[in-house]
Amino acid sequence: MTLKNGVFFSILIAALTGCANGPAVQTDLPNSLTAHINNDATGMMVMRGANLYTFSNEHCEAAEMKSTKISMDKEETLSTIPVTPGKPLTFGLTTVNAQGFKGNWGCSVTATFTPENGKRYLATLQTEGDNRTCRMVVTDQDNRVIPTAVPEYSCVKTLAGTVKNGERHASTPFVPVIVR
């Protein structure tokens, strides 16, 4: 079994068992960011994974996975993480779908903004067109859109490598070999 096949089967097993890892969702914490994914992938038995990463700066250094969740739900709230007021926060949200032999694909967005003291933020990654594109919006507790800096490429390293922010990416599809 190759690594890619192993990743697929790991996703399959985790999705069937309902896998979540990361800080609990606590949307009422001040100085925090809650990550949410709306994944519009269609088809039978779509398993959806989502990840939240933070980086030490806008140059994608010191990546740290903060949360991961795999399920079959179209909407997922991943977790709530603390943020430091007055210090730029660079983070990435990514989603990936596994549909067996149909393939695996996903979308990722990295953004940077500077949190203010006492504020709560919600970052929502919305996929569109069966995951052909995605966009991320950050809002504060008063539902005001927060301006973010979005680089051309996502900081998140995917199975497809480095990808453009907001564009669909796909790993090499798993093709079974029939031995006779």
Q: Can you put this structure into words, describing what you see?
A:
It is a single chain. The chain is mainly β. The protein has one domain (3-170). 8% of the residues lie in helices and 41% in strands. It has one helix spanning 3-17; strands at 19-21, 32-38, 47-55, 64-71, 75-82, 89-98, 104-113, 120-128, 133-140, 169-170. It has a six-stranded antiparallel sheet, with helices on one face. Strands 5-2-8-9 form a four-stranded mixed sheet, with no helix packed on it. It is globular and about 60 Å long. Residues 1-18 have low confidence and may be disordered.
DSSP strand content: 35-45%
Percentage of residues in helical conformation: under 10%
**Secondary-structure element order, N to C:** HEEEEEEEEEE
Overall average residue pLDDT? 82
By DSSP, the count of extended strands is 10
Radius of gyration: 16 Å
Brief summary of the model shown:
The protein is mainly β and 180 residues long. It has one helix and ten strands. It has one helix at 3-17, and strands at residues 19-21, 32-38, 47-55, 64-71, 75-82, 89-98, 104-113, 120-128, 133-140, 169-170.
Keywords:
180 residues; 10 strands; four-stranded mixed β-sheet; disordered N terminus; mainly beta
Secondary-structure map with pairings?
Layout: H1 3-17, E1 19-21, E2 32-38, E3 47-55, E4 64-71, E5 75-82, E6 89-98, E7 104-113, E8 120-128, E9 133-140, E10 169-170
Parallel strand pairs: 2-8
Antiparallel strand pairs: 1-4, 2-5, 3-4, 3-6, 6-7, 7-10, 8-9
